[in-house]
């Protein structure tokens, strides 16, 4: 009986891998290239980034459908459609970005500075309203955060940050203070968001995409209007506490 169960498990795993590597992964790569090209074209005439954002949302929806991820959103009623926020989420998988794009807000991202040096892509990212971040250069990083605060105020868009500084393979890391600084500087609410299940859809260091349920828990917005910048450490810890609580991790 034990060998029978092992055989069934082995066959199921093999079929799942074949499905991912021969069908799902190529389709994801192809759709990313197609939607990326469409977004690049849109960026030549739409300087607001709204068309690019709409294209990104369609891309994200397709990726999640291809992967078989079943998204459950909790707390959407806490967000007002025409209000700008700093969204603060945990990060455990490349699938986190497509998942967060399901939130019905105009969302912009901080991207690695190196991406902005790539011909065409860099110009596209800037026109779409995304911002470069230099993780190893505190002065440049502070400049980017200040630009992000200005973007939020002038365009009324929300900005997403993963304050762990990168994907975490097994647990919630300590938060960097950039998200808290940005929220206070822009004077907009900071929103803690907990994402669970994406690590099962696409584990870190793997190309094996598999179906799984994903839950996004949106916490209560934390008001920052009138808050001083020297309170960012306390706000940062509050945000981490709320995110940890929403994903069921110790804090």
Q: Residue share in helices?
A: 40-55%
Run of helices and strands: HHEEHEHEHEHEHEH
What structural class is derived from the secondary structure elements? Answer: alpha/beta
Number of domains: 1
- The tally of strands reads 7
Could you tell me the mean pLDDT? Answer: 87
Report the sheet with the most strands, covering strand number, pairing sense and barrel closure.
Answer: 7 strands, mixed
Distance between the termini: 43 Å
CATH topology: Glycerol-3-phosphate (1)-acyltransferase
Radius of gyration: 19 Å
Per CATH, the architecture is 3-Layer(aba) Sandwich
Helix tally equals: 8
Inertia-based shape: globular
- Quote the beta fraction: 5-15%
Strand order of the largest sheet: 1-7-6-2-5-3-4
Low-pLDDT stretches are: none
Given this structure, which CATH class is correct?
Alpha Beta
